[in-house]
Each structure stands twice: as structure tokens, then as C-alpha cells.
Amino acid sequence: MNAPPSSPAPATDAVVLRRRLADALAATGDLRGPAWRAAVESVPREVFAPAWFERSDTERGTMWSPVVGDAATLARVYEDTTLVTQLDGGVAPGDVEGPVFGAPSSSSTLPGLVVGMLEDLGVEDGDRVLEIGSGTGYSTALLARRLGDDLVTSIEVDPETARRAAAALKAAGFEPHLVVGDGLDGVPDRAPFDRLIATCSVREIPRPWLEQSRPGTVILANLTGWLYAFGQARVTVTGPGRAAGEFLPGTVSFMPARRHTPPAPDTGAALAAAGPDRPTELGPEILRDWVGRFVVQGALPNSQQVTAQVGDGPCLDHVLDVDGSHATLLPQQDGSWRVREGGPRRLWSLAERAVTAWRAQGSPPIDAFRLSIDPDRHTIHLPDRSLSWDLPRLEQRRR
After folding, report:
1. Which of 29, 85, 190, 268 is most buried by a 10 A CB count?
2. 82-110, pLDDT tens digit by residue?
3. Domains defined along the chain, listed by start
4. Lowest mean pLDDT among 41-55, 286-300, 301-315
């Protein structure tokens, strides 16, 4: 009688799963060349995500349950999905025993997005790369496998996240140059870089990134604002403080860099406002459209959206600006909208003007927009400049 076939050892399973992951990413178009395929097939993701949180939506709200990786959960690690590895800036899966509330603060990003970004970066042999945000270290390992340890520098702002990434990289056999610090400042003693990639979102391309580049350096970064609209920008440095490029297609978003997060909104004025209102053809649905929200954010770069109610009244959408301006959208029984505006500027009027200009051009997609950078300004614009806006100069303000 023949003995039943034995199950393959976990290491063999991982090899098969990595190959299957590479095949899946090639099928979606995220993996496009043999160099990154070799990296995906050889870097053990389970080393970088030994434990994670699984999400569950309950009557009490979203909760997170810790999962410790083992042979039974290995296939989960090699799914094209994001694994949340930290909550609230410091809570790891090993710190809790059951479902908990919390906000994700670190993750192992879905491999398709990671690999697609690395392909978009256009890395060539011999390039010196700076990665902003080490995270779990998985993307750092892919870079080190592709280029070699000496050419890869990765900086992480959270000390505990950095410690875990360093340990995982060492366990996987990689020794890139790792730095604990604020990635917005770059790593000047390792400059200049040929490629720079950010795994956090920023409100502008920080001046140090440009200063630590050379003509021809490619920077890939996720641009956002306080309305949390996002666009994946790829620019090429053309000279001191200068760069130009485009936004890539897709709906990519990352957690914002800590220095670029908005202040707590002051809802008092908007909730207490009882002034006149007017009809508007632009309802809050524009803020649920990926590109529409991006356009409104361009017009209102220092504004936030808050949904709140007063007493037993309905939940209303409010747009609040740091200068004290505010707009509240008021639903009508016939399905139309009115808006109440207050403060020094008429926020919704500015949003209406920007959206009207965008729609007049046929509502172009996110990849129709360009990003032009010079020492004085960052400008997002359509190629013919029929719609454009300048971003707030944050680094100048900070200095």
C-alpha cells in the first residue's frame, strides 16, 4: 500500500507561492520585466510580515484581530493584499490578544502596488536609490535584491518600525543602508541619488529631495492635501530646485508624512453658522469622485472635509479652512443642494470655479495633469495651462 504523499516543507511552499505571486503580478501588468520578477521570486515576504492585523467590521465599528504567521497562513502572506502591521503609531500584533479598535499606522503594502511603483521608478543597474519609508522592509529588500545593498538607502521615521525592518532585512540576508529619521529631510550624507521613491504621501516635493538629486534623477511620490485627494507624481529633476513630470494613472494613496498631516479642524464656526445660503449645482458627490476631489483640493489646499451634525439635525458635509472660512452643504427634499458660506473667503465658490473649468475640458483623468517645480513654486496643471494651481510652500513656511 502506497503511503499518502507528504506535504511539501514550508520553505518549498513559499518558493511556489512567490512564483505564483510573480505570475499574478505579471498578469495584472504590475510586474513588467525579468529583473523585478527575480526579486519577487526570491524575497521572502513572510520574514517582513511575521504577524499582522485582520480587519473586521462590527456593530461597534472597525476592529483589528492579531494574526501570527505560520505554515497555515503562509498563503495569506503571498496574496496581493496589504497587511496592517501596526496600529496607532505603536501597537503591534504581539501586543494584544484579541480584537481591538485602532487606526492603521504601518503596513506591508500590497505587492502589486510596491512592484508597480518600482517598475514606474525606472531603476537601472548602478542607480543609487533613496526610499522614504522603510515600513516592514519588504520593498527595501526588493530594491537590495535588484541593485545590491550598497546602492540602497532607506529612511524610516518610526524607531520601532525601523528596528523591526532592520531585523527582518538582516534575517533575509540583506544589509542596505538604513536610517532612522524624518524622510522629508532625506539623507544628505548618502546623496546624490539617481532615484527617489516615497511610500508616504506629501503635500509637496520637499526641498531636500531636490537638493539631494542630480539632473536626470527621477522622483516618484504620492501627492496629497488636507482633503485627502491623492495623485501619484513622477518627476525628473532638471536643475537646482527644478523638476517636471506627470501624474500616473490609477488610484494610489498612502498615509501622509507626519509633518504634512492637517491640524485638528475647528468645527465651531461652521456648526454655529446660521447665515444666508444659496443654491449650488455642485453637491458633496464631487468629493467622492477621485479626480473631482483632486480638483477641489487644488482650489482649497488648506481645507478639510468634516461630516458632523448639530443636536438632532442631519449629518452635514462641511468644508473648513485654516483661515476660518467654511462652507456647509445643505440637502434639499427635491434632491438639489444649497450651500452656506462664511469667513474671509467663499470656499465653495472657489470649488465651483475649479470644477467648472475641469469639466469644460471634458473632465480629464488624473494622468492628464502635470507637475512643474521651480525654486519658488509647485504648479499642478493641464498641459495647456487651462487649469492650474500652485501648492502651498510648506518648507519655506517651516523655515
Report:
1. 85
2. 999 989 988 999 999 889 999 988 888 99
3. 10-108 (no CATH), 112-251 (3.40.50.150), 265-399 (no CATH)
4. 301-315
- The confidence score (pLDDT) of residue 70 equals 84
Summarize the confidence of residues 292-309 as an average pLDDT. Answer: 94
SS (H, E, C) the chain: CCCCCCCCCHHHHHHHHHHHHHHHHHHHCCCCCHHHHHHHHHCCHHHHCCEEEEEEEECCEEEEEEEECCHHHHHHHCCCCCEEEEECCCECHHHCCCCECCCEEEEECCHHHHHHHHHHHCCCCCCCEEEECCCCCHHHHHHHHHHCHHHEEEEECCHHHHHHHHHHHHHCCCCCEEEECCHHHCCHHHCCEEEEEEEEEECCCCHHHHHCEEEEEEEEEEECCCCCCCEEEEEEEEECCEEEEEECCCCCCCCECHHHCCCCCCCHHHHHCCCCCEEECCCHHHHHCHHHHHHHHHHCCCEEEEEECCCCCCCEEEEEECCCCEEEEEECCCCCEEEEEECCCCHHHHHHHHHHHHHHCCCCCHHHCEEEEECCEEEEECCCCCCEEECCCHHHHHC
